């Protein structure tokens, strides 16, 4: 059995503002769909090879295509990348051991 990837509730709460508003019929579970999109891209699978737990592969692809064209996926990933980088820079265990960046010149 494949280990499926699922976004946590905290991750979904951070990404919630990026989702487009639903017009008319409510969308299927965004957490399931976005987890499926990430799983497919992370593992380099074809859309039709998506595990059934994420829903129909055509829905995953069409949502990915629509959100990509609108820039939604790119904005989500950019914000998460910046957040991860910032948390690395401010992590208390790493700050004490961090070597100064090369652009800081100190006199000895």
Automatic annotation (TrEMBL):
Residues 7-77 form the Insertion element IS402-like domain. Pfam families: DUF4096. InterPro entries: IS402-like_dom, Transposase_6_like. This is Mobile element protein. It comes from Salipiger mucosus DSM 16094. The lineage of its organism: Bacteria, Pseudomonadati, Pseudomonadota, Alphaproteobacteria, Rhodobacterales.
């Amino acid at each position: 059995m494949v280990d499926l990837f699922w976004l946590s509730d905290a991750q979904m709460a951070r990404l919630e503002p990026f989702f487009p508003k639903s017009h008319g019929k409510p969308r299927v579970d965004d957490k399931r769909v976005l987890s499926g999109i990430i799983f497919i891209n992370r593992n380099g699978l074809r859309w039709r090879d998506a595990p059934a737990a994420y829903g129909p592969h055509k829905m995953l692809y069409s949502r990915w295509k629509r959100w990509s064209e609108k820039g939604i996926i790119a904005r989500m990933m950019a914000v998460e990348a910046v957040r991860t980088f910032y948390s690395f820079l401010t992590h208390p265990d790493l700050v004490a051991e961090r070597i100064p960046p090369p652009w800081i010149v100190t006199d000895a």
